[in-house]
Amino acid sequence: MVGSLRPLFAVLLAAGAALGDPETPVHVDGAPPSKIAVVGAGIGGSATAHFLRQHFGPEVQVDVFEKGEVGGRLATVTVNHNDYESGGSIIHSLNLHMQEFVKQLGLKYRRSVAGKMAVFNGEEMILEETDWYLLDLFRLWWRYGISFIRLQMWVEEIMEKFMRIYKYQAHGYAFSSVEELLDSLGGSGFINMTRRPLSDSLLELGVSQRFIDEVIAPVMRINYGQNVSIPAFVGAVSLSGAQNNLWSVEGGNKLVCSGLLKMANANLLQAQVDSIALVQSADSPQYELSFTTAAGTRSELYDIVVLATPLQAGISSGIQFHGFTPPFDERPGNYHSTVATIVHGYLNTSFFGFPDPRLFPYASILTTELPDLFFNSVASICPVNISTGYRRKQPQEAGVYKVFSQGPLDKSQLKSLFRSYYSVQVTEWQAYPHYGSSQGLPPVELHPNLYYLNGIEWAGSAMEMSSVAAKNIALLAYHRWSRQMDMVDQKDLMHRIKTEL
Which residues form a coiled coil (predicted)? Predict the structure, then answer.
């Protein structure tokens, strides 16, 4: 996500503590689950394995299947002997699950390196961050009136409601669908926000079109590679991350994933899951997973299965489903393609109106939505390991930059952005859903004891959204298995929690 827009967004909220480990649940026949499978070892899958271990206890076998690298869309690339984030790179200070993971794993927060931001419209910088907070506030007011205040109040209200999820989960409550979860937090208003364009909601608030075009659109472009027609709830998730209270993990955010799998004592299998077959039994269904490893193809039976991988066409893991009525198909909708290009070279500051690179003061450039602009953003980035004496490279020096664009950059485009370069590494991500179509929110429960985590991304895609979904599915699976229906889809939870205290 985008870096600091300090005057625009400041959300200072608090939430509840983590839930302690419950007793190992038993099924109606008195037996706990024998084996649980998690398909996918990104942040969602690894967090699910961790929470499943918390709730089902030490005896249950938890197998995690991953055909690629642990971390999924949290990944790094190596440039000149240093590693840099090529995937999910920042975490919000209110991401309480992620904060707890870092604490439990003994990881460290990466030292932040200051850098100013600006918005480029193809011809000039139309919004620039300075070293003076009050000057930034004055400039915002002078150009946009009170639009930024209205936006800040809207984001704060949404975030305050969303933070209720931590209290609900701390008390053990779960939800059987994304709609039920959103309804418990913000009522029908949150659900309607998943169906209504962000631009419409902001205009109704009294936010000016100029502010939407010059501030909101650039944030959406760098965070989701899309425009202000994305749903309002997704936009609010994006805007909540456009502030200065952001952090990342020393050594790379993907360390959280590998650490969670180790802490969960999960059995990691480097394997492609080929098929999931329903096996009926007298008490409850089981699922036969057929999978391919380097040693060949085999199959195993599982009592509970969590799919922590997209099932949409074009990004689908290729899993075949057998024995289900009605038969399973790929979920509707598409994922959005965004290209991250890591360039080691000299930025062409003349492209941005600064012939002398020594006078170029910005670390990151966002862009407005114009057909002629071939990139969404360009930013000077720091390695995942920052030494005490580290300093950000000056524009006249060779530095490492991350460019987000809709498609791969050709040589002429690279030459427009860089005077010269030593290396170029390209990663094409199917990183988040393509928002705006009316496919609705996917189900959480595909079949008894068969769960789908990635449906949460269609409400909002972020590391913490996946972590919240992971906790919800672990609680839901626990309560379904132990027949604790009073802990699922309960109404008026804030009142219920108060009466429990």
Answer: none
What ranges make up the beta strands (E) of 259-376? 267-270, 272-279, 286-293, 296-302, 304-307, 320-322, 335-347, 362-367
265 and 221 within one domain: no
Considering the domain architecture, whether residues 313 and 451 belong to the same structural domain is answered as yes
Contacts of 366 (CB under 8 A, 6+ apart): 2, 117, 118, 119, 120, 218, 219, 221, 222, 376, 377
The domain that contains 161 carries what CATH number? Answer: 3.90.660
Q: What is the pLDDT of residue 246?
A: 79
The enclosing H or E element of 82 equals strand 82-85
Distance CA 315, CA 454 (A): 12
Please report, for the domain that includes residue 57, its CATH number. Answer: 3.50.50.60
pLDDT digits (tens, 9 = 90+) for 221-242: 999 999 999 999 999 988 886 6
Q: What was the pLDDT predicted at 29?
A: 57
Instruction: Look at residue 24 and tell me if it is in a domain.
Output: no
Residues 66 and 209 in one domain: no
Encode burial over 246-271: b for 16+ CB neighbours within 10 A, e otherwise: bbbbbbbbbbbbbbbbebbebebbeb
Q: Tell me: the pLDDT tens digits for 240-288?
A: 866 656 789 999 999 999 999 999 999 999 999 999 999 987 678 999 9
Beta partners for residue 116, in sequence order = 362
Which of 372, 397, 431 terminates a domain? The answer is 431
pLDDT above 90 coverage of the chain, percent: 74
Span of 88-102, 415-429, 482-496 with lowest mean pLDDT: 88-102
Q: How confident is the model at residue 475 (pLDDT cuts 50, 70, 90)?
A: very high
- The pTM of this model reads 0.91
User: Distance between CA atoms of 84 and 140, rounded to whole angstroms?
Assistant: 33
Residue 116 belongs to what domain range?
Answer: 106-167+187-250+335-431
Domain end marker among 431, 455, 470: 431
Q: Please indicate, yes or no, if residue 151 is contained in any of the structural domains.
A: yes
- Residue 278 shares a structural domain with residue 330: yes
Are both 312 and 289 inside the same structural domain?
Answer: yes
**98-147 pLDDT tens trace:** 999 999 999 999 888 889 999 999 999 999 999 898 999 999 999 999 99
Counting the structural domains of the chain, the total is 2
Q: What is the 3-class SS of 151-185, one letter each residue?
A: HHHHHHHHHHHHCHHHHHHHCCCECCCHHHHHHHH
User: Does residue 89 belong to any structural domain of this protein?
Assistant: no
